[in-house]
Amino acid sequence: MLTIGTLKYRRYAAKSPQDPDAPAKWYARAVQDRTVEFEDFVTHISEHNSPYSRGVIHGVLIDMLACLKELVLDGKSVRLGDLGLFSVGISSKGAETAEAWTTSLI
């Protein structure tokens, strides 16, 4: 495993599905070593010399998550600075015809 600052990543080789006879190319994949749960994240923020109590941080994040969910389910994308762009993504199985397709295929 290699690192850039605190970003952990691994290199891996992969062939192109479009050209299986071409040589493999090397790519990077991010590596996470553990999941920080919501309550632990709130505590982590409150311990970074924050003037806000753990309870205030908890409340703000709960409200932020509710608003984020509301907006993305309404078809909007929400950009949270350098953290990323949040939007809904779905996948479904295919149907032979438009008439045969139902939401059960999602």
TrEMBL record:
- State whether keyword DNA-binding applies: yes
Report the source organism: Caecibacteroides pullorum
Superkingdom, according to UniProt?
Bacteria
Q: Which UniProt keywords apply?
A: DNA-binding
Matches recorded under Pfam families: HU-HIG
InterPro entries registered for this protein in UniProt: HU-HIG (IPR041607), IHF-like_DNA-bd_dom_sf (IPR010992)
- GO MF term set: DNA binding
- The molecule here is called DNA-binding protein
- Provide the HU domain boundaries: 7-103
